[in-house]
Amino acid sequence: MTEPNIDGKLAEEFAVPAHVEEVKTRMAEFARCHASEGRRVVVITSGGTKVPLESRTVRFLDNFSSGRRGASSAEYFIEAGYAVIFLHRHRSLYPYSRMFSTVNILDALQLQTREQGEDEVVVNQEVLPNIYKVLKRFQEVKESRLLLPIEFSALSEYLHLLKATAQAVSTIEMPEHKIQSSNGPLQLSLNMVPKILSPLVKDWAPQAFVISFKLETDASILLDKAKRALDTYRHQAVVANVLDSRRGYVVVVTPDSAVELLLTDEDVKQDIEIEERIVSNLTSAHQKFIDQV
Amino acid sequence: MTEPNIDGKLAEEFAVPAHVEEVKTRMAEFARCHASEGRRVVVITSGGTKVPLESRTVRFLDNFSSGRRGASSAEYFIEAGYAVIFLHRHRSLYPYSRMFSTVNILDALQLQTREQGEDEVVVNQEVLPNIYKVLKRFQEVKESRLLLPIEFSALSEYLHLLKATAQAVSTIEMPEHKIQSSNGPLQLSLNMVPKILSPLVKDWAPQAFVISFKLETDASILLDKAKRALDTYRHQAVVANVLDSRRGYVVVVTPDSAVELLLTDEDVKQDIEIEERIVSNLTSAHQKFIDQV
User: Fold this and answer.
1) Which domains can be identified in chain A, with CATH numbers?
2) How far apart are the CA of A155 and the nearest CA of chain B, in angstroms?
3) Quick one: closest CA in B to A109, which residue?
């Protein structure tokens, strides 16, 4: 049996949201601008997808995802020198501001009466010890336009925006001293609707280094499932993990390797995040992919 | 056909989460303390419910709800003199801090270098013009313990906590000069799993004034559905609304009345929220309910 034609289905079942063309232009401009400076671009999809059960809907079939992994990965890719298109679901976690997800922000604020001038509202840095550093980095990233956030709500919006993103970053004209095909964008797709991988790899972004994520509850079938996904979709890597241990253990599976990444107790004590290791592994793999072409 | 026995099903299908007993004690203490001061108690459930599709699950059948209505209603009930038990879903909107849901909090923060002392992080009050007032009120409410937030994630947790809440607030011993049965708590249940209304009204909180919410996409069947819910579950009121107009129009339906509440364009310009009208209507109805018993 052949794969269903998602492109056809997309056109048939879901009208193109009105803002897709405008967003596509912004993404292409973003990608072009960074490519002209020799900067690599990664597309991260994050935050799960909502599937409407009725046409005008009050119930959804939802994927489990706060968007934590997508948001933190975006930060580490920026630290690694990438520009990031962050295609994320409405109200999912966001790079840099994700630190607020564990506190009620009002518990971290204080009223302060100044002798001169206006009364102020000040962040209590005992409640949020990293806020100064994080805000500073957020403002630098904003200033240098290294992060392009694109928001989606419904599945149809996500699919059209993903297609637009892939096309926008795939058609970058690279500077002459680089070989165009060898510097394709990195496509990191968390919480991907599985069938969408096929047109993404084959049609929308054939030169990209595409990574999908696989979250299982049963560790024993993890590797097998990851390998089968690579066989089926012919993309470059699967980051596989188990629900219970996903914050501290993943396997990065490629057609010819399976590398385990693990946080030790010591790592956890030092607030090291597994996403730092994942991103480090993936940027190396991306470099190798570029060198091989 | 008879209603399924939810109580039995609860025990059968879902183990009682470990923290329910501890939460129940806290709620009972909260209700007892406020009742002893003659303060009425309202229980608000907010933020939708997640229904696990598998036992260890990565996908959910979800209700559409950001929790905006529950969070703002909690604020208006506190202004009306009630103490509020806020049974809300993890990551749904929260009283007072709900104003942050429309901005990236980092966009509202500024680094500030002080001549003396530590560098500070300050809220930009041009981005959040109400922050000083809202934070002040939040701190007063916290100080006077008028708000008891209880969080849930899964459906089973929600059901057990709701039952515990109803029992905790129903068994309040009122001061002698009040008749116990006439000062039952107000039970405001947004996004209620429908079948749960039956044991709530009949068994868990028979003396409470119970309100359910009905969200429809079709306005023509709204009133009929609300009346049918009252007939079936025998509770006191249904707040009925239509998806598209829910921020500006509701009908409060009781067994012998249907009152339309509507925001005019002028109201909207003045940032009046429909929840202020709903809460005003419901507190009056609650008073009447108490007087009649």
Assistant:
1) 6-292 (3.40.50.10300)
2) 14
3) B135
Measure in Å the smallest separation between the Cα of B60 and chain A Cα atoms. 5
- A62 Cβ contact list (under 8 Å, min separation 6): A48, A49, A50, A51, B50, B59, B60, B61, B62
| pLDDT by 10s per residue, chain B, length 293 | 344 455 555 555 567 778 889 999 999 999 889 988 888 889 898 887 655 444 444 444 445 567 888 999 999 999 999 999 999 988 889 999 988 888 889 999 999 887 776 789 999 999 999 999 999 999 999 999 999 999 988 777 888 888 888 888 765 443 333 333 334 556 665 555 657 888 888 888 888 888 988 888 788 888 999 999 999 999 999 999 887 787 899 999 999 999 999 999 999 999 999 999 999 999 999 888 888 76
Q: Convert B95-162 into a string of H (helix), E (strand) and C (coil).
A: CCHHHHHHCCHHHHEEEECCCCCCCEEEECCCCCCCHHHHHHHHHHHHHCCCEEEEEECEHHHHHHHH
B62 touching chain A per CB within 8 A: yes
Q: pLDDT of A102-140, one tens digit each?
A: 888 999 999 988 777 678 999 999 999 999 999 999 999
CB distance from A134 to chain B under 8 Å? yes
Question: Across the interface, do A59 and B56 touch by the CB < 8 Å criterion?
Answer: no
The model's pLDDT over A13-59, given as tens digits with 9 standing for 90+, comes to: 567 778 889 999 999 999 889 988 888 889 898 887 655 444 444 44
Nearest CA in chain B to A97: B106
Verify whether the Cβ–Cβ distance B120 to A122 is below 8 Å: yes
Whether residue B14 lies within 8 A of chain A, CB to CB, comes out as no
Residues of A in contact with B121 (CB under 8 A): 122-123, 125, 131-132, 135
Contact A213/B at CB under 8 A: no
Q: Please identify which residue in the block is written with the tokens 């026995």.
A: B5
Q: Is B90 on the interface with A (CB under 8 A)?
A: no
Q: Pick from B97, B101, B111: which is nearest to A106 by CB? A: B97
- Distance CA(A207)–CA(A204), nearest Å, equals 9
Q: At A198, list the tokens.
A: 């096929």
Taking the C-alpha atoms of residue A74 and residue A280, their distance in angstroms, rounded to an integer, is 12
Q: Is A234 helix (H, G, I), strand (E, B) or coil?
A: coil
Question: Is B94 within 8 Å of A109 when comparing Cβ atoms?
Answer: no
Residue A196: both structure tokens together = 């969408």
Measured between CB atoms, does A106 come within 8 Å of chain B?
yes
Q: How near does any CA of chain A get to the CA of B56, in Å? A: 7
CB of A5 within 8 Å of any CB in chain B?
no
Continuous segment of H or E residues that includes residue B261? strand B257-262
Closest C-alpha among B113, B77, B164, B90 to residue A66: B90
Give every CB contact of residue A190 below 8 A, 6+ residues apart in sequence.
A44, A45, A46, A65, A69, A70, A73, A213
